[in-house]
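R.M. (postdoc): so does anyone remember the format we settled on? I'll just put the structure tokens first.
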């Protein structure tokens, strides 16, 4: 199949547009990989795919014109597209950030990988697949978390004095607010003047519609607690 210039342009525009739609959703979430990144990834995948198709067509025509060389002339239309799938993983990895036992950017990394597949399908001319896949991706990114109420996980760092008394207070607060303690990391810092400061890092399962700011305010009412820090541990961003 020989592509006309208009067909090539159409496929490139569709790939860029579909990638831009997904990038716009990511930008609404405040992610660094937004419209431009997703557009370029999808467009680049389409360019490579179309280049592979054009090159394969040239090889086929060359073999037809040179029948004596046909047995040694080969072509594989999946070679370059396979490299797209492998190579895009490095770009996706750049959006993942690990800090303070939390991981962010996994969803954006997955969207970049999926957008590359949109570019491939648009470059191949599978318009229905590309467009319908874009709509499904938007559905997943925008609605899944609101439909499926997945229990949230948070890490809470608390610094305090008077260990026994404060631990009893924390245990009571957790029970009253239906919070499950998954794990606890305890540490104590001893000062030269004989005083000590406790630091506990709690991994907590929170109930649906839990108001963390209100809960922190309640904990802060205890005179023994002087510092509270929250650490987001959700992987879906």
């Amino acid at each position: 199949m020989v592509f006309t210039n208009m067909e090539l342009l159409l496929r490139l525009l569709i790939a860029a547009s579909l990638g831009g739609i997904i990038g716009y959703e990511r930008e609404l979430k405040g992610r660094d990989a937004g419209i431009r990144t997703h557009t370029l990834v999808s467009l680049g995948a389409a360019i490579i795919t179309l280049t592979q198709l054009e090159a394969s067509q040239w090889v086929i025509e060359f073999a037809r014109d040179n029948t004596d060389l046909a047995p040694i002339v080969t072509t594989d239309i999946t070679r370059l597209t396979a490299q797209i799938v492998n190579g895009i993983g490095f770009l996706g990895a750049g959006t993942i950030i690990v800090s303070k036992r939390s991981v962010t950017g996994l969803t954006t990394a997955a969207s970049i990988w999926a957008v590359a597949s949109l570019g491939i399908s648009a470059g191949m001319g599978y318009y229905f697949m590309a467009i319908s896949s874009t709509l499904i991706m938007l559905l997943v990114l925008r609605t899944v978390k609101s439909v499926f109420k997945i229990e949230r996980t948070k890490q809470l760092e608390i610094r305090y004095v008077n260990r026994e008394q404060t631990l009893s207070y924390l245990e009571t607060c957790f029970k009253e607010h239906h919070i499950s303690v998954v794990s606890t990391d305890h540490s104590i810092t001893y000062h030269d003047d004989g005083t000590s400061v406790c630091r506990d890092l709690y991994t907590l399962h929170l109930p649906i519609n839990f108001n963390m700011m209100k809960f922190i305010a309640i904990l802060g009412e205890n005179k023994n607690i002087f510092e509270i820090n929250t650490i987001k541990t959700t992987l879906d961003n």
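R.M.: ...and that's the designed sequence above, right after the tokens. Also worth knowing: The chain has two domains: 5-147, 152-232. The chain has seven helices and six strands.
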